[in-house]
Amino acid sequence: MRLLILGGTMFLSRTVARLAVKRGHQVTALARGTHPVPKGVQLVTADREQGADAYRSLLASLADEQTWDAVLDVSRIPNQVESAVTALSTRTKHWAFVSTVSVYADHSTPSGNESDQLLAEWSEDQDPLEHYGEAKVSCEKILREALSPEQLLVARPGLICGPGDPSDRYGYWPARFARDNEPVLAPAVAASAKTQVIDVRDFAAWLLDGMENALAGTYDVVGDEVPMQTLLGAALEASGYRGQIRLAPEEWLLEQGVNYWAGEDSLPLWLPAEAAGMFQRDGSAARRVGLRPRPFDETLKAVLQDERSRGLTRERRAGLSAAKEKALIAELP
C-alpha cells in the first residue's frame, strides 16, 4: 500500500507511520520537518499553513497516473483539511481522518454513540485550539462534501494515551505515585466515576487495518470503561507507592484553582459530573470492525515505564507540580 500521512512525526501519526513501514507499506509523510520521521518513511517538507502551495512538490513527485492508496489526516484546522482534500482527492483512493469525541454536543449521558448530536460548526472568528470540537466538526463536514461515503473513514477517538504521549495526562498518575512517597492529592470521586482511553498502539493498528481494507464510515474509537478509583489503585500498585493518599472534595479543589481534566494545575482525567459521558462512550461499532483494545493495566504499566525513562521530576504539560501539590495538602481541611 502507498500511504500518505499528513504529519507522521508526532505521537499518533508517528505510531501509524512506524507500524505501516513494519507491515511493508510505502509511506510518505508531509510535515514541516521540525521532528524526524521514523526509519523507512519518506519525508516531504511543507507547511500546511501555505494552503495549496504546500502540496505542489508532493504532487510533482507522482508519476502521471500514480495515486496513493490512502491518506491519513489528523489536523484540527479546517482550512488545512480543505486545502489538502482539494489538492489530493483525485490522487487517492481512500481518506482516513482522525476526529474526536469532543465533536458531540452533550457529554452528560453515558453510552453515547456515533448518532449523537454534534456541536455547531467552527466559525472563522473562533480559535480552533480553544474550539477544538467545533473545528473538528467543520473538518468532518469538509471531507464529507469532497469525498464519496465509500472513500472516507472518520475516527472519533477518546483520550489517546500510551508511551510517548506529549499531553502528559494519562501518565500523570503513575508518574506521581512513582516519584516519591510524599502524600498524593487526589479528587474524592464517586465510585461511579469512570475513565476511558484508547492506547495509541491499538488505535494505530486499527487505523492501519482500516486503510488497508478501505473501511468507510464514522466510529467512536475508545477502550474499556475503568472506574477512576480502580485506575488510581492500579497506578499505586504498579509504582510501589507506600505513602498516603489525601482525598479532596471537588468544591474545595475548584476553590483552590485546581482544574479538571488537563493542563497546568490540574488533576488529569478528573471530570465534572455533567461531562461524565465523555468517558463512557459506547464504542461497539469500532469493535465490530476490528478494534481490539488491550487491558488497561497493560497500558498503565507501559506508560509508567515510559514516564520513568522520560524523568519523573520533569516539567509536565498536565498535573500539579510537586510544590503546588505540597502547598495544597498543607491547606486541606
UniProtKB/TrEMBL annotation:
Residues 4-209 form the NAD-dependent epimerase/dehydratase domain. One of its GO terms (molecular function) is aldehyde dehydrogenase (NAD+) activity. It comes from the Bacteria. Coiled coil: none annotated. It holds the Pfam family Epimerase. InterPro entries: Epimerase_deHydtase (IPR001509), NAD(P)-bd_dom_sf (IPR036291), NAD(P)-dependent_oxidoreduct (IPR051783). One of its GO terms (cellular component) is cytoplasm. This is NAD-dependent epimerase/dehydratase domain-containing protein. It comes from Psychromicrobium lacuslunae.
